[in-house]
Amino acid sequence: MIIHPISPIFDENSRILILGSFPSVKSREEGFFYGHPQNRFWKVTSAVFGEDTPRTVEEKKSFLIRNRIALWDVIGSCDIAGSSDSSIRNVSANDLSMILDSADIRQIFVNGQTAFKYYRKYSEKETGRPAICLPSTSPANAAWSAERLTAAWSCIKKDIV
Q1: 2-159 is classed in which CATH architecture?
Q2: Active site residue: 13, 39, 67, 94, which one?
Q3: For 96, phi and psi rounded to 5 degrees?
Q4: pLDDT-based confidence at 161, cuts 50/70/90?
Q5: At what angle are helices 41-48 and 57-66 packed, to 10 degrees?
Q6: What is the DSSP secondary-structure string of 14-80?
Q7: Is residue 90 annotated as a catalytic residue, yes or no?
Q8: Which tens digit of pLDDT belongs to each residue from 7-20?
Q9: Helix and strand tally (H, E) in the chain?
Q10: Which of 6, 12, 62, 101 lies deepest, with the highest CB count within 10 Å?
Q11: Is 93 helix (H, G, I), strand (E, B) or coil?
Q12: Domain residue limits, the chain
């Protein structure tokens, strides 16, 4: 059983919540979200906001807070082989109420089908809120170019103003 090692990023000004499934081995090693260099999360979200891609953990945190994005994962603990979403078993979900009770979250987005599946199974009843599933920024989602991902992800901006 692996317990999620990364705290959520949010503040009272956050307006959207983006949820992944569970941190990859690389992210767990780095101690921050989307740490694998091939994951396109930071490239795509920074392009949506017309900013340079943040590189360091501090730059990433600053980017999220500045753009009113809360970021966490659906799964709080699970059994997982490496970084393989398909191997996830014995799921326990994160309690999203700490974010939802602190910030005026206008929309919840999930990064890919695995996060969507677990959100619907474990979190949607608790939050009473549906999530919008965006295409995964994972390198495993090779069918989607960075340009297509950026276009699809551009919808996150509308709930922020």
Answers
A1: 3-Layer(aba) Sandwich (3.40)
A2: 39
A3: -80, -5
A4: low
A5: 40
A6: --EEEEESS--HHHHHHTSTT-STT--HHHHHHHHTT-PPP-SHHHHHHHHHHTTEEEEESEEEEE-
A7: no
A8: 999 999 999 999 99
A9: 7, 7
A10: 6
A11: strand
A12: 2-159
